[in-house]
Amino acid sequence: MTAENPPAALRSAWVATLAAAAILMVTMGARQSLGLFVSPLNSSTGLGITTISFALAVGQLMWGAIQPVAGAVADRYGPGKVLVAGLVVLSIGTALTPFMTSGFGLVVALGVLAAVGAGAGSFSVLIGAAARRLTEDRRGKAAGIINAGGSLGQFVFAPISQALIQTLGWMGAMWSLALITLGALPLARVVSPPGHVHLHAAGGSSPWEALRHAMRDRSYLLLHAGFFTCGFHIAFLVTHLPGEVNLCGLPPTVASWSLALIGLANIVGSLIAGSSTARFRSKYILAVMYGSRALLIGWHLMAPKTEWTFYVFAVALGLTWLATVPPTAAIVGKLFGIRYLATLFGLTLLSHQIGGFLGAYLGGIALAQSGNYQWMWYADMTLAAAAAVVNLPINEARIVEPVPVAT
Q1: In which residue ranges of the chain is pLDDT below 70?
Q2: N or C: which end of the chain has fewer CB within 10 A?
């Protein structure tokens, strides 16, 4: 915030935060509804579930791979141009998908172009931009608001995408999503700060020096290990939950509303998680979230597979779905400062998406070879329990309560 007019700067920062949330609503909403296209795309092209799952898995990996690169560019030149480029590339990849009739073409359109575009307009750049405008005590709340925008996107886009598929066909739905993506372009200017921001660089004078410093930090590596599991979990579910619903003999609308409920519940979860980072150590917040997922998956496996089981599972899961992002970003900021937060958190997101690649791809292999997802559920539950444990040794400073000042 500027020294000349702190209240005006604070208002501008929160407006930029809301604009960042709106951009994430579009980029995440488009990504998180892709599982609804798997079945109609397979029926139309005959490419097979494994091939389509591989394309989406590549997309998970590319979405993560672009995060540190986009973050480094945004740290150096500002987030505005990065966001514009991301939205345009996402739109191009989505629009080209209906023209792809081979596995390679699908990988290029969905796995590379759409994923890279969505990644450039995602967490690392958006949270990094907001963090530069706010004091430390407000950054967790801002990250929660931005994250809630992505969850709102999932809630909004899942039923809209399903309705578009039923009305216009999957091709028309893809082209519609491409147009919607372009509608977010004016928001990029709001997010970008006016002028270049010079901040102290903890752990290095360049993004690459900061990365080398961070990769020698045990706590940073433990954070990566836990976030890897988060990516595995989310990518498996967002890609294959519609298939699980189909295996249970339930209509496709159960899948679309389950994905929507996950997004709706995560709005609440993200806001709570963002606010909680100012009161509790983030590593404990993450441990509780991952542990709760392991218990929830166990319940889901034992429960009768009715539509209400899926809805309850979706709401409970949604409370922690992407609510892991604010405490994870908060730990990165505490460990290394915010000068290269977009870069360093971007690398953490890459580990998330390596897990995402495996979750999406192995889910397709499991279905093709065994006809169900049973062993994937067991793997998911085991990894969630492990993630709860590995976060505990992270060397995070205690929360210091503000001391009242006598007047």
Answers
A1: 1-6, 135-137, 193-207, 398-407
A2: C
Is pTM beyond 0.85 here?
no
Say which DSSP state 194 is in. S
Q: How far apart are CA 177 and CA 30, in angstroms?
A: 7
Mind listing the pLDDT tens digit for each residue in 116-175? 999 998 888 888 788 777 766 677 788 888 888 887 887 788 888 888 999 999 999 999
pLDDT at 205: 59
377 within 8 A of 300, measured Cβ to Cβ: yes
pLDDT at 85: 94
pLDDT, tens digit (0-9, with 9 covering 90-100), for 89-112: 999 999 999 999 888 999 999 999
CB of 233 closer than 8 Å to CB of 286: no
Angle subtended at Cα 225 by Cα 219 and Cα 229, rounded to the nearest 5 degrees: 145
The count of other CB atoms within 10 Å of the CB of residue 77 is 12
Residue 321 vs residues 203, 218, 299, 362: alpha-carbon distances, Å: 31, 25, 17, 20
Judge contact between 142 and 278, C-beta under 8 A.
no
Percent of the chain whose pLDDT exceeds 90: 33
Question: In this structure, how many other beta carbons lie within 10 angstroms of the beta carbon of residue 163?
Answer: 13
Give the chain's length: 407
Element (H, E) at 300: helix 282-302
Q: How is 309-352 classified by DSSP, letter by letter?
A: HHHHHHHHHHTTTTTTHHHHHHHHHHHH-STTHHHHHHHHHHHH
> What's the CA dihedral at 7, 9, 11, 13 to 10 degrees?
-140
